[in-house]
Amino acid sequence: MIQYIFEFIGTLLLVLLGDGVCAACSLNKSKAQGAGWVVITLGWGFAVMVGVFVAGPVSGAHLNPAVTLGLALAGSFAWASVPGYIIAQMLGGFAGACLVWSFYRDHYAATADKPDTILGTFCTMPAIDNKLRNFWCEIVATCVLVFLILALGTHGNAFAIGGSAASTGSLGAFPVTCVIMSLGMSLGGTTGYALNPARDLSPRLAHAILPIAGKRNSGWAYSWVPVCGPLLGAAAAAGLYLLVF
C-alpha cells in the first residue's frame, strides 16, 4: 500500500508542477505569460525530477501508466502491482490538476475569453488535428521514453561499489529529466508530448468537472490519442528492449 501512496504523491507533484508551468506561461496576467516552449519543456523535465526524487526510493517512481505497463511487459515489474499503481497515478494526476486550478484560479478567471488556452493548461491537444498522425507521434515519443528508462537499468549503465553492482536510485532522475526535456524540444511540437495517460486523461477529467469560467469542451474526441498512443509506445519499447538487451 505504501508504494501506491508514493505513486499518488509523485504523480500529483509531476502534474502540479507540469501543468503549473503551462498555466504560468499561458494564462492572462501571469508574470510568466509568454515565456514560451523552452520554459515549458524545462518545467516538465524538472516536474518529473521532483516526482522521482519523492517517490523513487519507495515505489520506483513510475508516475505513468505507460511506464508501469512497459516495465511489466519487459519482466521488470510484477503484474500483480500494475492495477494499484495505475489507479494511484490516475488519482494523483487528477489531484495535481485540481491544485493547479486552485492556485491559478484568479488567472483562469482573467483568461475566460481564451477557452483553448485554458484547456491547454490541463491536457494536450494537437497543433494539427490529424489523429492517426498524432497517434503515431505519441507512440514514437513514448517508445523512446520507456526504452531509455529500461536501458538505464542495464548492466552497462549501472555502477559498482566495492565490486558489487549498485542501483542508480534517485540518480536516475537526472537522465530521465534530460530525456523529457529532449522529447519536448524535439518531438513535442505536434501533440504537446503527453507520454503519460495520468498526465493527460486525469487532468482532462478535472477540466470537465471543475467550475472554470469560459471553458470549452474537454476535447474528448481526441482524448484516446494521448492514452492509447503512450500505452502502445510503451509496449513497443518493452519488445525492443527484450530484443536488443
Could you name the key traits of this structure?
245 residues, mainly alpha, Glycerol uptake facilitator protein, two-stranded antiparallel ribbon, globular, 10 helices
- Please bin the fraction of helical residues: 55-70%
Strands, total number: 2
**CATH topology heading:** Glycerol uptake facilitator protein
**What's the helix-strand series?**
HHHHHHHEEHHH
Approximate shape: globular
- Summing up helix and strand content along with how strands pair, one would put the structural category as mainly alpha
Query: Main β-sheet, in a few words?
Result: 2 strands, antiparallel
Q: What is the CATH superfamily label?
A: Glycerol uptake facilitator protein
> Any idea what the CATH architecture is?
Up-down Bundle
Oligomer: single chain
Beta strand %: under 5%
Q: Pick out the low-confidence regions.
A: 165-169
What does this protein look like?
With 245 residues, this protein is an all-alpha fold. It has one domain: Up-down Bundle (Glycerol uptake facilitator protein). Helices cover 66% and strands 2% of the residues. It has helices at residues 2-26, 37-59, 65-73, 82-103, 105-110, 115-120, 131-152, 173-187, 197-209, 225-244; strands at residues 159-161, 164-166. Strands 1-2 form a two-stranded antiparallel sheet. It is globular. The two termini are 32 Å apart. The model is unreliable at 165-169 (pLDDT under 50).
